[in-house]
Give the backbone structure.
Amino acid sequence: MKKAFVYFGLQLKRAAKYFPFILALSLILCICLGAVLGAVVKLDSASEDKQKVTLGIVGDTEGSYLGFGISALQTLDSSRFVVEMVEMTEDEAKKKLENGEISAYAVIPEDFVDSAVSGEIKKIRYVTTDSAIGVTTVFMDEMLDAISVMLVESQKGVYGLQSAMWDKGYRAGNHMDKLASEYFSLILARAYISEQTELGISDELSFGGYMFCGMLVFFVLLCGIPFCPVYIKKDVSLSRLMRASGKSVFSQVLGEYFSFFFFMFANLYIIVCALPLFAGDALSFIPELSGVDLVWAQKFAFSLIPAVLLISALQFLVYEISSGLVGGVLAQFLGAIALAYVCGCLYPINFFPDAIKNVSAFLPAGAAREYICALIGDGAQALSFIKIFAMFALLLSLAMIKRRQRILRF
């Protein structure tokens, strides 16, 4: 073990010469991935805004209770978050519907309100296209059904009661107006009947929070590329000489690996701590990272140690397998992209088939992503630590086996 520590110190001195260059490349890579993250999250937010259903309203609504009702729905009712009502002529509505600018339009007949007052409900003509198949169509059908049940039938009941009272000689007067007013208030206040809970896009995180964790894992995977000139060995004659002098493969691999891990973590620590200082306001679009400071960044960086241990063990194994610098760089780059995609670092894992989700959970990048998502969310579980350290031990053992094979090969 003492020999391993001595060799570890020598490797630290050797890698320290390259660290400023590695840090500069990592900063450039971090800026590029940060720009991609911001663009993806903002694009997703813009697409969510465009998901609001636009409904054209055809008919004279000015100076009538109908116009007041539409204004109230668009101002006070919870439906304003999913439905936007726009008044227009029928020719404009047809043109916009054909161009896909609106989802549908409703034609309100003349004297609709006056007929409703007398207890007669005229039908509203709802126009859409047969190509509008999907969630929008289902939603509009359900909304129209709700309107017919909540408004039309209940309105008939209110005015039917009023007509029956008049026939019996009763004059309801203000009481009937109060009944209609209270019913209208109940309809507008129906958002308070239920409670809305947002589970997030994946791992109970928002889209921005999830993509931040995924991009962080992808960044650590790509950081293995700048270290290639330091840890890829084409010639193992020095390792053979060290083994002949008493330094085992175990001490060699541990010394080189932990020096690599030390600078990998130092690289990540500097960048994570720089986030709240230089990109604090830019992270406000991620709910889980709103209001972060330097203290949080330092704690978060140290909590990333298990994930960095696992990913750096994978990268070190790639160094051992690679026989040259060009091959090592390509292996690190292609491996990072493949693992990042399959393990849900570039796209939410919940959108993948179950087979891919099950496989990714037992890949180093997938286990690291799950662990970091748990850190941002509710906190990592003991099972995550067990899985990470089991993979870490396996990868490091494979690296030792490969080193031994290279040393004994003549």
Observations:
- The first strand starts at residue 53 and ends at 58.
- Confidence is low (pLDDT under 50) at residues 46-50.
- The domain at 52-192 is CATH 3.40.190 (D-Maltodextrin-Binding Protein; domain 2).
